[in-house]
Amino acid sequence: MRYIRYAFLAALIIVLVSVSLANLQMVTLKLMPDALAELVGFNYSLPLPVFIVVLGGIAAGLIIGYILEWLREHKHRREAGEKYREVRKLEREVNKLKKQKNEGKDEVLALLEESN
User: Fold this and answer.
1) What percent helix, strand, coil does the chain show, rounded to 5?
2) Tens digits of per-residue pLDDT, 76-86?
3) How far apart are CA 109 and CA 113, in angstroms?
4) pTM of the model
């Protein structure tokens, strides 16, 4: 399975490098449309190669998606944490009750009874 993953990653890298080398033309990335920039009085533009714009857009989409998914799953993580703490608390209580029950008994018999 590990080799399949490495082969897939190698193929992906080859495809990304070939797409990048095929799209070296420069484009101007603008912050806002010209009409809106004239209205606001502020226009920022940056000349970049096409592959940087495309790969940057993909990377930004992935990062935004991961953040939104992390925020969406917050309630599930919180609930799992609460359940984990409750289980630990109950385990401590059971151990405490077992110790109280086996107080004054022979240690070997207490261990045998505890294992059942």
Assistant:
1) 75, 10, 15
2) 999 999 999 99
3) 6
4) 0.61
